[in-house]
Phosphoglycerol transferase MdoB (Halobacillus dabanensis), 416 residues
Amino acid sequence: FADGSEISEIETYLEETSPDNPDEKTDLYGIAEDKNVIFVSIESFQSFLFDTKINGTETTPFLNDLRHSDDTITFENFYHQTAQGKTSDSEFIVENSLYPLGRGAVYFTHAGNEYNALPEILNEEGYETSVFHANNGSFWNRDVMYDNIGYDEFYDEKSYQITPENSFGWGLEDKAFFEQSIKYLQSQEQPFYSKFITLTHHFPFELPEEKANIDQYDSNSNTLNAFFQTARYTDESLELFFQQLKNAGLYEDSIIVLMGDHYGISDFHNKAMGQFLGKEVTPYEQVQLQRVPFMVHIPGYDDGEIKEKVVGQIDVKPTLLHLLGIEENGDMTFGGNMFAEDRKDFIALRDGSFISENYVYTNELCYDRSTGEQLTDEAAKGCLPIKEKVDQDLHYSDNIIYGDLFRFYDFNENEE
Ligand code: GP9
Ligand code: MN
């Protein structure tokens, strides 16, 4: 059964567990006000790829430079929090600052719920909102969910010229995808919020030989071996996209947010991964491998840095609203602004693992985050109170989704 009482209980819980100063305004508050937001969800891109080389060739030269540039803020301890719904889970987390479900994909199972999603909020603020993704529009039930959460346009595969020359693997290659998207982007009212979802760097990481500009890795895993070639391809396609945005006159008035959706290399490949990393992939390392890129590129900004705070996909919605200078006082979110000093003290992964300032917890084991050493007895007890909060968070988020509890909550009434 579901009624309005549990939502008040959750509202109280979120208020009590949120930082002392949830509305803390940083120097970055409103820095992107009235600018376009170009959000790029980068398929299967894991942060361990940064600054790697294969036979002397950099895997991601463009992104490496971008990470260290003055106009980019990078969070290097940013975790994906997805489960079975993969890309769609990452989209759901970003749009709602709720956790995905432990089983199934929310995009399929609860596409009809009430939400207070990012595109709806931005619509009300006068943004045109859209998604670009050159796959079948019903994949992950996107067409239905997007409609529900307020995207104005969905440019799916029907919007693209897909030929044998420009497609392989999952479909249209990313370089052609970005190139063909520019005209649609230009046709939009400004300011816009547009999400791009890439596809080429997707399992099984297939790439025609003549399109590869880096060697394969050499291990017992064909998957890991191929992974670097499509990662390099992604890097090249992003570099071209930035150039195309400049040529189209869209770059200066936009911020570009780059995010990895989830891992591409599963634990099935741990032996090869251990060989590549030069260390055994312990459960602790397995958690650390769930880091994906999160970079905010602000043309004209000159205070760029690499931030070390522990953050995750759950924090993206409040963070974007902060950058855009939009106050959502009545919102119910499980994440918070990444730039705030005062933050919740953990990032929960969907399987109940978590990362905090001092600990990494997974499979009922507590590790020292800075050394990776497994803690025992008294030392391991530090994980327990955080684990309780993690489970409570996941439980309440699940209840909101399963009970469609936002039906009983008036987001506007709680606006101040
Ligand atoms: C499909 C693409 C990939 O359209 O987003 O989905 P994934 O398998 O990564 O969830
Ligand atoms: Mn994906």
Summary: The first strand starts at residue 36 and ends at 42. The pocket of manganese (II) ion (ligand 2) is lined by residues 43-44, 86-87, 261-262 (CB under 6 Å).
